[in-house]
Amino acid sequence: MRTIVRLENVSKWFGEVVAVNNLTCDLKGGITGFLGPNGAGKTTTLKMINGIIAPNLGRVTVFGEDPWDNMELRKKIGVVFEMGNLYDWMTGEDFVRTMGRLSGLRSEDLDKGVERALKIANLYEAKNRRLKGYSHGMRQKIKISQAIVHDPQILILDEPLGGLDPISRRYISDLIRDWEKEGKDLIMSSHVLHEVEAVAKKIVLLFQGKLLAQGSIEAIRRLIDERPHTIKVKIDKPKEFVKEILEYDFISSVVFLDKDSLIVRTKNPEEFYTVFPQIVANKGFEVEFMGVTDESLEAVFKYLTMRTKRTSM
Amino acid sequence: MSIESLGYKEWEGQKHGRFYKVLSLVDYEVRHAWSSIWVKILIIIAWLPVLIIFLVPVTEISEEGVDRAFYNLVSFTTSITIWLPIMAGLIGGGLIANDKNNKMFSMYFSRPLRREDYIAGKVGGFAVLMSIPTIVPALIIYIVLIGKSDLSLLVFIKKSWLLGAAWLYFILLIALFGSLVLFLSSVVTDSKYAVVGLFTIVILSDLIANLLWLASDNEIYRLGSLTFNLENILAEFLGIDQSTLQLADQQNGGVGGLVSAWKSLVVIVGITSFMSVLTLLRLLSLEEE
Questions:
Q1: pLDDT for A165-201, tens place per residue?
Q2: What are A35's strand-pairing partners?
Q3: Domain ranges within chain A, ordered by starting residue
Q4: Which residue out of B111, B122, B284, B286 would a mutagenesis test of the A interface target, given it has the greatest number of A Cβ atoms within 10 Å?
């Protein structure tokens, strides 16, 4: 498979903070997920791939070219990064149109591009509404619209599923998979394994700016699942839920945080994630939140770091 | 709706060049500023002289009347020393600061948009907005005067240098405040600090220059005051009798010997150039963390 992005001994620092530390990896075509806790260097790496920022050391190439200040290359890339509410006064269509114009689209092509991008993001009906009135999910989708208005070859999504409701999450996950089916490439970041796992086949694991592991989702999952996870659950009948879940021997402990939130510690997250929906469906529980805690992910990464060190000794 | 069902395929059409992108950015900035009620209010205030000229029935205008109308317009714009920095601050304060605060650099620079084009778009947007209460009213007043007076067109052609001088002055004004506010906007993340910074510069320059001048009786210190320099240049551009200002100086306790307007011009152009270079260097090296 062709290499679309190559990072060779790349380092980037901001003042005294080292965001990316001697990172070397190749990204092949298709969907690749950058996984790591907050501060792992995911966003910085994505920005270097896009050529928004330049590495202090090392070399980044995209399709064999240096992306820094490379206007021709940028025409092939669409990005979604975190952004504020500066555009709230605009309508959805106006926003996508403005971004299309900044990408250099001409009038007729611009009209077509805007229409198509809005339809892909399922926002065509809401195109005349101001962004101020958009929900979080709609905002995320309009950001994807502006990123694809100029038909890029690679789509870069920074935490595209973070904080989304299940319907929006599913829609964007489908959109990501459809993108790949079109023969296009996508790089996304997340700090939640299950988000990346749902769409990506290849994962790059980052921790404290360093490459921890790279490979297929199965290989990475095996590595991560060797370590116990702590999962936060907010549910309507917590006592009944605990009674049910403690029946399984892969549960190490359960701790109540408050009257409806609890932390479940499991030796085998894979089994937990299989059993959990079954229990919820069978017993009719209502789940408000379920997700791995940042501390848990941090612990997993620390464990993997130590494991890597031990292996290399 | 999925991508497949829309027959998604890579677009291979032509794309516009850099100038178009700069224009798009200018267009965005103008519309963005226009969405603020305060900008609208300030622009309406700036257009009051035009409305007055429209409303007051003027049937006989002498050549001196044309001079006076122009002087009134330009002095209105500049003598209210609070007004122009507010306008510049309100429009320019957030131009870069808001982008930084809202992490918009990624949105802009992930596209085929050069930093130079971004800067040109920001400057262009500021210039267009600032020309609405300055350059445009000057033109309209001139046209209204032609339409309302009984003077021959030749008189107005002869006096057209007034329009040119007013425009030149406004361009200088826009460039000065633009360079100052854009630099301030590039170093803060909250636009209100840029506005406060601009005010501080204007007021402090005036205060310190006047104190030094009064303490030393040396006219050269007056060159430190932005407002003095602007008024000095305005008088020179519009051919206003300097002795009037000299007399006013003496009545205010000054020594009355005025500093050459060309020295003021050098100071203003120098400050503008220096701040422009600083802003340019700052923006070219600016990175979003």
A1: 778 888 888 989 988 888 899 999 988 777 888 888 8
A2: A190, A205
A3: 3-223, 226-312
A4: B111
